[in-house]
TrEMBL record:
The protein's enzyme class: hydrolase
One Pfam family named in its UniProt record: PAD_porph
Keyword Hydrolase part of the UniProt annotation: yes
Name of protein: Agmatine deiminase
Gene Ontology MF: a single term: agmatine deiminase activity
EC nos: 3.5.3.12
Any one GO biological process: putrescine biosynthetic process
Recorded superkingdom: Bacteria
Keywords: Hydrolase
Lineage: Bacteria, Pseudomonadati, Planctomycetota, Planctomycetia, Pirellulales
Entries under InterPro entries matching the protein: Peptidyl-Arg-deiminase_porph
Protein's organism: Pirellula staleyi (strain ATCC 27377 / DSM 6068 / ICPB 4128) (Pirella staleyi)
Length: 352
């Protein structure tokens, strides 16, 4: 069922935090060789390692439409427990951005999702017609209620604490290549109406080098509990990422949550610069993914890999924090969080 007039927040839906219990995580099998130019061959294998890592904790649903894609997915992960393949075609693998935003409710409401419009980060990488259809196809499979705001929004552009606070960047959400007809106030109203949030925290958008999303928040900073935010920080003053990440840190240190309490800010290191030819890669540890009882962190063969895992493990003592390789995947200019979209359990009470 599609809804054009009803607003999720008015009905009692909300957007839960990623560490709340999940029914599954959705991913889209990598198939677009142009996303990993000259280096696609190892990508499906590394993606399969991510799938296996997540499947240790919970169900993993994979969009694997088209016979050749389905065949490869079946050969690499078809026999892995908790993995389920679906005949949903995609243009690319970035399910965080083309997938739906799943909602939950503290009331007796039917399962629902938000089907935003998608234009491949401001029209940068056409075609994206199959990707834009993914939320509707998932809703049809699951019999979900569908809310259609009619505006462009990628999942990697927003991060929330499940209590009413949302973190995002001006450089992305207010970019003219998304919704040129919307100003900040109008954009905020959509976020309140469709995600049930009350407070929107706007970072300027200090992008890390190599990012092609105009400053997705999941490359920069992430909530790990209701008040704690980890932020990617470069400490090398000679590095191009030093200025932008220090700016992000300063902005976050001045922010408060929905109850006007200061946020707890924890620094995550960045790995040493990684390049393919002359292209710097947006490698960072904020692109981790939450699963039930676990966190999977991208690894780049860098000394900071272990530091990032240790920092997150200390912050999340009730989760098992593990690493999985991402040296090949990040050549596509994204990593684990960009590739995944969590599906929460429904009808859960608000966490205490």
């Amino acid at each position: 069922m599609t809804s054009a007039n009803e607003l999720p927040a008015q009905l009692g839906y909300r957007w839960p935090a990623e560490w709340e219990p999940q029914a599954s995580v959705w991913v889209s099998w990598p198939r677009n060789v142009e996303s990993w130019p000259g280096k696609f061959e190892p990508v499906p294998g590394e993606f399969a390692q991510l799938v296996r890592a997540m499947a240790q904790f919970q169900r993993v649903n994979i969009n694997a439409g088209r016979p050749e894609v389905m065949a490869q997915a079946e050969s690499l992960v078809g026999n892995v427990p908790n993995v389920f393949l679906h005949d949903i075609p995609t243009n690319d693998a970035w399910c965080r951005d083309h997938g739906p935003t799943f909602l939950t409710s503290d009331r007796d409401l039917p399962p629902a999702l938000v089907d935003w419009q998608y234009n491949a980060w401001g029209g940068k990488y056409p075609p994206f017609d199959f990707d834009n259809e993914v939320p509707g196809k998932i809703a049809k499979i699951q019999g979900r209620h569908v809310f259609t705001p009619g505006i462009i929004l990628e999942g990697g552009a927003i991060d929330g604490n499940g209590r009413g606070t949302l973190l995002t960047t001006r450089s992305c959400l207010l970019n003219e290549n998304r919704n040129p007809h919307l100003d900040q106030a109008a954009t905020e109203q959509y976020l309140r109406d469709y995600l049930g949030v009350q407070k929107i925290l706007w970072m300027t958008g200090g992008e890390i080098e190599g990012d092609d999303t105009d400053g997705h928040i999941d490359q920069l900073a992430r909530f790990v509990d209701a008040r704690t935010v980890v932020v990617s920080v470069c400490e090398d003053e000679s590095d191009e990422n030093y200025g932008p990440t220090q700016q992000n840190l300063a902005e976050l240190q001045a922010m408060t949550d929905q109850d006007d309490r200061p946020l707890e800010i924890v620094r995550l290191p960045l790995p040493r610069p990684l390049f393919v030819d002359d292209q710097r890669l947006p490698a960072g540890y904020c692109n981790f993914v939450f699963v039930n009882g676990g966190v999977v962190v991208p690894q780049f063969g860098d000394p900071a890999d272990a530091r990032a895992i240790a920092i997150l493990q200390e912050l999340l003592p009730h989760h098992r924090v593990i690493g999985s390789p991402s040296l090949d995947l990040v050549w596509g200019l994204g990593s684990f969080h960009c590739l995944s979209q969590q599906e929460p359990l429904t009808k859960l009470p608000l966490p205490k």
